[in-house]
Design a protein that fits this description.
about 220 residues; alpha/beta; Rossmann fold; two-stranded parallel sheet; 8 helices; 11 strands
């Protein structure tokens, strides 16, 4: 399975790439700077550099997605219109990626959204926090409007912790996470979500819990 990731250079993205590789999948990382390419290659990730100042940005994204099986948007802050350069001045990365996925026939799309930014993120965002949360809500809406097999994951506050392999999963019309979740466990959850049919067209809140990840995902709606 070939999985295109935006946000592969983040703490979550790196763990996601590792998780995908561990299950025999191929991670393809969309990056904004060529300085990341060698490290990504060494980690087993196929890098694709996005020239955010080029009018060819959309074409580059389409080429990167051609032949892929899934897309994961795991980027954190800076996900609103214009965050990938002038070519996206009126569209978010979620709209850009989901539109490209729809165009080339990549149906599976997982969006990592956010309701509980960490204390450090809240401090860094400051007065921009409401705008950041609006961006995430807009990204969810942009994805839901596409003819794709989408899943939205709303994690609890992210932290670095040893993986537990267990989560608390909530579904429903507007689910919210409870507490925290380790980046490693969230990465594993994303990996399993890609092939979990019950997660399609669902918004799921995920945090640390007591249920094995695969069991929690398989039990949705039962």
């Amino acid at each position: 399975m070939r999985v295109v990731i935006l946000g592969v250079t983040t703490g979550l993205g790196a763990r996601l790439a590792e998780s995908l590789l561990g299950r025999g999948m191929t991670p393809v990382g969309l990056v904004r700077s060529a300085e990341h390419t060698e490290a990504l290659k060494e980690a087993g990730v196929e890098p694709v550099v996005l020239d955010t100042h080029s009018a060819e940005l959309r074409s580059t994204v389409v080429r990167a997605l051609t032949g892929a099986d899934a897309v994961v948007l795991a980027a954190g802050t800076g996900t609103g219109p214009g965050s990938l350069g002038a070519a996206t001045a009126t569209a978010s990365p979620a709209a850009l990626l989901s539109g490209a996925a729809e165009r080339v026939g990549v149906r599976r799309f997982v969006l990592v959204s956010a309701l509980l930014p960490s204390a450090a993120d809240r401090a860094a965002l400051g007065n921009d926090l409401p705008a950041y949360l609006r961006e995430k809500a807009n990204a969810e809406q942009a994805l839901a409007e596409r003819d794709l097999d989408w899943t939205v994951l709303r994690p609890g506050t992210l932290r670095d912790a040893a993986p537990t392999g267990r989560i608390l999963l909530r579904s429903g019309a507007d689910p919210g996470p409870e507490g925290e979740i380790g980046r490693a466990d969230l990465a594993t959850t994303i990996t399993y979500t890609l092939t979990a049919p019950r997660t399609v067209h669902r918004t799921l809140a995920v945090s640390t819990g007591s249920c094995e990840i695969s069991t929690a995902l398989a039990g949705i709606g039962t």
